[in-house]
Amino acid sequence: MASSLHLLLLVSVSWISLLALVISPAQAATCSSQTFKNNKLYANCSDLPFLSSYLHWTYNASNSSLSIAFVATPSKSEGWVAWAINPTAAKMAGAQTLLAYKTEDGAPVVKTFNITSYSSIVPGKLAFDVWDVSAEFSKGTFTIFAAVKVPKDAASVNQVWQLGSAVNKTSGFPVKHDFAPPNLQSFSTLYLMANSTTGTANSTGGGGSGALRIGSGGNMGLLSVSVLVLGALIAF
Ligand SMILES: *[C@@H]1O[C@H](CO)[C@@H](O)[C@H](O)[C@H]1NC(C)=O
Ligand SMILES: *[C@@H]1O[C@H](CO)[C@@H](O)[C@H](O)[C@H]1NC(C)=O
Ligand SMILES: *[C@@H]1O[C@H](CO)[C@@H](O)[C@H](O)[C@H]1NC(C)=O
Ligand SMILES: *[C@@H]1O[C@H](CO)[C@@H](O)[C@H](O)[C@H]1NC(C)=O
Ligand SMILES: *[C@@H]1O[C@H](CO)[C@@H](O)[C@H](O)[C@H]1NC(C)=O
Ligand SMILES: *[C@@H]1O[C@H](CO)[C@@H](O)[C@H](O)[C@H]1NC(C)=O
Ligand SMILES: *[C@@H]1O[C@H](CO)[C@@H](O)[C@H](O)[C@H]1NC(C)=O
Fold this sequence. Notes:
InterPro entries: AIR12_DOMON (IPR045265), DOMON_domain (IPR005018), UCP037471 (IPR017214). This protein has 236 residues and is of the alpha+beta class.
């Protein structure tokens, strides 16, 4: 009796250690198994903490250049994905944005948007140099490739990312994204220097919720909600 209890205990303990063994490698980043059609390699990658998105990057300090591949899957294939650096704040307001979607002929394109506030989303030049921009779309997943100039000797940059389910085909503007918690928490610090491993959000919380309202046509209720949250920084 006692010995069979012993055996049971032993089996449970081994089972638990086995589980632990199986689980810890599973914490290895998903991004490390992602590869690109153009065989481009990046020095670093991280699984971003929200929206099942991934950032691959190579930082070249001597050129202050950051080469990235941003991988994300919108809920619909006619949707959009976006990755931004915000040079002035943590979240959406100020985000210098690279946004990918599929045009009518199915080809993925990348547009740049200067997002000053939730009501000012202007296509055009960003606050820093951007080059080697392209996008891929495969099995519902977009990859945005780009190289950007970051401030000289920057230790980190504020990154913001987002997904949306549709693009206005007439205007080429992204339709606003959901406002579920992950959509409002999808920002973090990307540490460029070696001593921090991955970019992790250190959100102060503060109930900061916000709405990325793209385009017009909001009703008064939405407008007043937007005005209410305007005081808080707006999550992308
Ligand atoms: C980094 O940038 C410098 C200056 O443009 C260049 O000479 C060097 O080859 C780059 N390093 C890598 C690894 O690309
Ligand atoms: C260095 O940065 C410039 C843009 O500022 C870019 O044109 C050039 O390709 C970069 N060189 C490297 C090696 O990344
Ligand atoms: C982005 O928009 C703001 C406000 O309109 C403007 O002050 C800023 O110069 C713009 N940035 C770029 C790079 O055009
Ligand atoms: C798409 O954009 C056009 C032009 O800005 C606008 O007239 C139209 O109402 C928009 N469509 C939708 C569904 O929002
Ligand atoms: C990026 O990868 C390089 C080369 O493996 C490594 O030395 C460096 O510490 C990494 N940087 C970060 C921020 O993890
Ligand atoms: C990492 O580097 C930053 C400055 O770049 C420094 O403030 C911080 O103490 C360093 N952290 C560790 C653990 O070395
Ligand atoms: C996160 O923020 C808190 C409060 O501002 C600070 O005390 C803490 O050191 C930060 N942690 C990291 C990893 O930056």
